[in-house]
Amino acid sequence: MNDAQLLDPQTKEGALSFARRFVRSDAFMLLFREGMGLVEQTAAYLDGDGRKEAAALPREVALTYATESMRLTTRLMQIASWLLVQRAVAEGELTAEQARTEHNKVKIGDPMIAPAEHIVAQLPERLRDLMAHSQRLQARLRHLESQMSGAETRNEARNPVQDQLASLQARLGLTH
Q1: pLDDT in tens, 92-123
Q2: Residues sharing a CB contact under 8 Å with residue 146, sequence separation 6 or more, in sequence order
Q3: Phi-psi category of 173—alpha, beta or left, where left has phi over 0 and alpha has psi -120 to 50?
Q4: 151 falls in which pLDDT band (50, 70, 90)?
Q5: CA 9 to CA 149: how far, in whole Å?
Q6: What DSSP assignment string belongs to 29-62?
Q7: Buried b (16+ CB within 10 A) or exposed e, 42-61
Q8: Distance between CA atoms of 18 and 5, rounded to whole angstroms?
Q9: pTM score, two decimals?
Q10: What is the DSSP string of 53-121?
Q11: Which domains does the chain have, with CATH numbers?
Q12: pLDDT for 23-65, tens place per residue?
């Protein structure tokens, strides 16, 4: 393998090299702690203040609260599963092939269509914050997953938002 392949996450070898380096990096451990911390914060909120806040909502908003809290929980379980598989690879508990098999079972889901803004605005602020944080984290993991799998191709249409995210990740040491 040459240096260009090592630096190029678009090749299979580059993707594997990136994946191996990333899961052993400090950046991954920060991401892992962020994800697992978000799971804990959300659980504490939904079991505590969230219950009280939901009980005080009008019926139509309470239905949205229930739906969005289930979506949030599902999203966070996908995130936690992805992070735990990556950590298992980093610690040598799983091989890269076993990790690919696990990822085929549990993938970071596509973003779901959000309810109308005027309805979301009626939800408790803390729930909205948790939803937004989980959606940002989900987008980051989807991007990382595509880099690690080498699924992105150079011929895909350029997305300026993704380009900005990639630039930020590079500056934070999350790529190459």
Answers
A1: 898 777 877 776 666 666 666 777 788 889 99
A2: 152
A3: left
A4: low
A5: 8
A6: HHHHHHHHHHHHHHHHHHHTHHHHHHHTS-HHHH
A7: beebbeeebeebbeebeeeb
A8: 10
A9: 0.71
A10: HHHTS-HHHHHHHHHHHHHHHHHHHHHHHHHHHHHHHHTTSS-HHHHHHHHHHS-PPPPPPPPPHHHHT
A11: 8-171 (1.10.8.930)
A12: 788 889 999 999 999 999 999 999 999 999 999 999 989 999 9
Distances (CA, A) of 158 to 42, 81, 137: 34, 29, 21
Q: What's the CA gap between 109 and 158, in Å, rounded?
A: 22
For residue 120, the one-letter residue type is V
